[in-house]
Specification:
With 297 residues, this protein is mainly beta. Helices cover 4% and strands 42% of the residues.
């Protein structure tokens, strides 16, 4: 799965597991006894912090995943293979699919209802940034002159499609958006570097979400029969670097269970082609009335 130029894929033997979409969520098949790796790729022109959780536990600390946790730093246009639960700066214990009863979350006496999900949160780095617009206003009118171009305000002293230059570290992006004279360009952004896009002044950090209209029986944690355990000890060195965590701009999850459990949940493992069906709903308006049988007027 991919969002805002950040992708996450579960890999077995170096190959990404096939993902299935069901109820607006992503699922993969998990085979008990199989080791896996989580590959995270950052295709943005700046480094990010990736906080990964497995079964609701942070893979670095082994504690419940929370907003305040720190994680792995991934450089611009780079990727990282997270191989397991971190033991030290030199080693980790490989991820292995296992029964829910043998999972680490169960053994750690944490919330085992979270078994069966891998989650990722990605954060920007706080860096010095500045804005440049270079505009002037015509006194007594609603005309603004910006970079040699004129713009008409929308009312309440606001104007749309104002070009601004947004610089974070060595990265510069030219953007447009909606702002006010009082706020200049400063209400365009949080600390998120952006490029080739339009932002609304009140939007802040861009977010995405999956919405499903599937009204069938909802899923339950009881249907998930798989968790992640500790496999063999791996040589897995890391180096500690400085990184001031900024805003979260990506959150994604992939769910996993055995083939039998996925089928029970209604996940289409065959990826059967589908077409839309007409909704069967009461209609408020039709054509003319149909006389009942036997009615002769």
């Amino acid at each position: 799965m991919n969002m805002h130029n950040v992708s996450m894929h579960v890999q077995v033997n170096g190959r990404a597991c096939k993902e299935y979409t069901h109820k607006g969520m992503s699922f993969i098949e998990a085979r008990h006894g199989t080791n896996y790796t989580v590959k995270i790729k950052n295709d943005n022109p700046y480094r990010v912090m990736a906080v990964l959780s497995v079964d609701g536990l942070d893979v670095v600390t082994g504690k419940p995943a929370e907003e305040t946790n720190t994680g792995y730093i991934i450089d611009a246009y780079s990727s990282l293979d997270v191989k397991g639960y971190r033991i030290s700066d030199d080693n980790s214990a490989s991820f292995i699919f296992t029964s829910k009863g043998k999972s680490y979350v169960q053994q750690a006496k944490s919330n085992a209802t979270n078994a069966g999900v891998i989650g990722l949160r990605t954060f920007n780095e706080k860096l010095p940034y500045y804005y440049s617009a270079g505009w002037t206003t015509t006194p007594g009118s609603n005309i603004w002159t910006i970079g040699g171009n004129t713009y008409t305000t929308l009312g309440n002293n606001t104007v749309s499609s104002i070009p601004c230059t947004y610089t974070v570290g060595s990265t510069t992006a030219n953007v447009t958006g909606t702002t006010t004279a009082a706020n200049n360009c400063s209400n365009y952004f949080s600390s998120t570097p952006v490029s080739n896009t339009s932002l609304n002044a009140s939007s802040g950090t861009l977010r995405s979400m999956n919405v499903s209209s599937d009204t069938s029986k909802p899923l339950s944690h009881k249907q998930f029969d798989t968790g992640t355990g500790w496999g063999s000890k791996l040589e897995d060195k890391v180096t500690r670097v400085s990184f001031e965590k900024g805003d979260m701009f990506v959150e994604m999850s992939v769910y996993y269970a055995s083939k039998e459990a996925l089928v029970e949940m209604g996940v289409d493992l065959q990826n059967t082609p589908k077409i839309a069906k007409e909704p069967v709903m009461p209609k408020a308006f039709g054509n003319y009335c149909t006389p009942p049988k036997g009615w002769n007027g």
